[in-house]
Design brief:
Strand content: 15-25%
Function: Involved in the recovery of exogenous heme iron. Extracts iron from heme while preserving the protoporphyrin ring intact.
Protein name: Deferrochelatase
Helix content: 10-25%
Catalytic activity: heme b + 2 H(+) = protoporphyrin IX + Fe(2+)
Number of domains: 1
Distance between the termini: 29 Å
Pfam families: Dyp_perox_C, Dyp_perox_N
Keywords: Heme, Iron, Lyase, Membrane, Metal-binding, Oxidoreductase, Peroxidase, Signal, Transmembrane, Transmembrane helix
Radius of gyration: 22 Å
Number of helices: 11
């Protein structure tokens, strides 16, 4: 843990007291970091929320940043294709430039004389920049022999309405931060440093709840108003690393400490959803909307009692409820770490919101995690009537760079 992060953690805990270490996710109502600071009408915003701005995530380590960190308030997902004629040599130079820039950005530092100053006056704001490689990257760079078998294309699902122009890609960059300008600055820098080596294939912009918006640490809600992420595995859970990260000794040593990211743009049919009575919404999900607790009772963290029957003799949590079908115990223990962003891209041609979830999940092997769970959801999830998968991609995300390395060096120069 970096010194800056530890200082910020101590300062925040000192403010929040009993809120605990998870207080890094939100501020305390009424506390020094937990309320909006009104400006003076001139466009200024008053005293800085120091613990938000100063929190710094290390660029180097066993895993890339942007996987284990708490949800960030702002995010950008961008896929690139190598430019015509570009190959492995250009990819090496690109990853060197991107890694150098990412390390400076995550430290809250400007990147060269051409830095636009967008994030000037702000701290690191928990910025993370994460890099991955798509299946086609290995063809373009002559590295097919080093392509992991886990990068086999995802199967088709009945809920797919995929736009090829917004799917796949040679390279992928995930940017997240607790400040919108800091995140945008990173996006602009990544695009500028790309030079002529790549072309943007697609870009998606997302958001989550801002730090300090709730009086205590709480699981985020999605645009359907549902508490979303209750069942996410935790690093302290037995077998967490085995489920999320690639272990040493695998067929592709360059992926040690890495993970596989499944990225899906999931459109939520919000008008249809909002028309459902609350009781029906809760039956679709299998949890109470008010607090995320299972319909069988308890609190958000109470394990659902999938065998409990109601007075009518039917399961309290319906057979097609999302919470039942997606539960690890219903899927042979399949486990993945979900780290999504919400999105809203305006109103579509049909007059409905173009909004939903930028679903990002992390796993050591998508064929044992995302694929079997999605297949089961595809066959009978009640939520499927209210969502539409519009884009899809899968990327190999190598482990974090060691001192003196750039991201992907063990692949590109081994």
């Amino acid at each position: 843990m970096s010194d800056n992060l530890e200082i910020s953690r101590r300062r925040l805990l000192g403010t929040m007291g009993a809120a605990g270490a998870t207080g890094l996710a939100v501020g305390a109502a009424g506390g020094a970091v937990g309320h909006a600071v009104l400006g003076d009408g001139s466009g200024t915003t008053g005293p800085a929320l120091a613990t938000v701005g100063s929190t710094r995530v290390p660029f180097r380590g066993a895993h890339q940043a942007g996987i284990l960190q708490p949800l960030q308030a702002r995010g950008h997902l961008v896929a690139f294709d190598l430019a015509p004629g570009a190959g492995r040599k250009e990819a090496v130079a690109l990853m060197r430039r991107w890694s150098t820039a990412a390390e400076l950005l995550m430290a809250g530092e400007p990147v060269g004389p051409s830095d636009g100053g967008i994030a000037r006056d702000a701290g690191p704001c928990s910025l993370t920049v994460t890099f991955g490689f798509g299946r086609s990257f290995f063809d373009r760079t002559g590295l097919v022999a080093r392509r992991p078998q886990e990068l086999e294309p995802l199967p088709a699902f009945s809920s797919d309405r995929l736009d090829p122009k917004r799917s796949d890609g040679d390279l992928w960059v995930q940017i997240g931060a607790d400040d919108a300008l800091v995140a945008f600055h990173a996006l602009r820098t990544v695009q500028r440093e790309a030079g002529a080596a790549v072309r943007v294939r697609w870009q998606m912009n997302g958001f989550n709840r801002s730090l300090g918006a709730t009086a205590r640490p709480m699981t985020a809600r999605n645009l359907m108003g549902q508490v979303d992420g209750t069942g996410n595995p935790k690093p302290t859970d037995p077998g967490f690393d085995r489920h999320v990260f690639v272990a040493a000794g695998g067929a592709q040593p360059w992926m040690t400490g890495g993970s596989y990211a499944v990225v899906r743009r999931i459109r939520m049919l919000l008008d249809d959803w909002d028309a459902l009575p609350l009781k029906h919404q809760e039956a679709v999900i299998g949890r109470r909307k008010s607090d995320g607790a299972p319909l069988t009772g308890g609190t958000e963290t109470t394990e659902p009692d999938l065998d409990k029957l109601g007075p009518d003799g039917k399961p309290v949590i319906p057979a097609d409820a999302h919470a039942r079908i997606s539960a690890p115990e219903q899927n042979g223990g399949a486990t993945m770490l979900r780290r999504p962003f919400s999105f809203h891209d305006g109103i579509g041609p049909d007059g409905t919101p173009d909004a939903g979830l930028l679903f990002v999940c992390w796993q050591a092997d998508p064929t044992r995690a995302f694929v079997p769970v999605q297949r089961k959801l595809d066959r009978g999830d009640a939520l499927s009537a209210f969502i539409r998968h519009e884009a899809s991609a899968l990327f190999a995300v190598p482990g974090g760079p060691a001192d003196g390395e750039y991201v992907g060096q063990r692949l590109l120069e081994a």
